[in-house]
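Notes from hallway chat w/ T.B., transcribed later so I don't forget. T.B. wanted the structure written out for a chain they're using in a teaching module, and asked if we could keep both sequence and structure tokens in one place. Agreed to drop them here.
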Amino acid sequence: MLTTMPLIYSILLIVITYTVLLIHGADCCTGWRLSPMPVFHYSGNFWWARCDYINTLIHPLSQHINKTWIEIDAKYDDCVHSKGRYFPEGWVASGPSVKAADCMNTSVDTSYLFGYKFPSTIDKYCPSIPQVSGLPCQTAAIIVNPRAFRRTVEYMASLSSKECPINIDNKIIQRSYDWYGAYPSTFIAMKEKMMKPAINLTDGLTIRFSDERLTYVVKNMTLLPIPNADTFLSMGLEFGKERVISYLDRPQYAIGQMLPSVTH
């Protein structure tokens, strides 16, 4: 009986997971997290997927111009990492409008994207002592709330090769057209939400980035640096009312020339 229990548990897990995929309308799911770096992928090749979705994906070994898609895709390996075992990690979530799911939402963690070392917070949900535990399969956290991962994505990108910029969207778009003749709408929508400025700009709004003391005032969607306190007060502005935003968002804003200094 002991030798058959692992098999029974495995079958039960597959049935439950597949049922959850059907209920939530997801195409594929992993036990932990769908990573956006460098492309959508399930780290370690641990995933489940619906057969009707798999049938919409390219066949990796099918021939195109006397080459398999695996061989063709090798041209993107400098940044997209699609050789060897990495190919299936990204292949399963490569559908242009994939409905991807995972089991680690943002309330658990926003620092983990991939790797063998899980965040310590996961112990709260999946303790080492065998018992009924875990999280339900649901729409992938990176798709639900991309901005929550912005800082982690930029930090991880800073550790990678300088030849591979944070934004490799053009390569991913080209690969999607190569494979499916379609725009990767789910991935690009996620990236656009992740990089969208945190606040709406209105004239007269004052802003300060989290890594500096300089204050800016908004005029015609442009941030104008205010040189000193006298200039600030002469404009009828109030101290303590400025919005503080992450320095990571600085590239998303147009910054103009320093305003003329006013002294009293």
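Follow-up for T.B.: The first strand starts at residue 28 and ends at 29. Might be a good example for the class.
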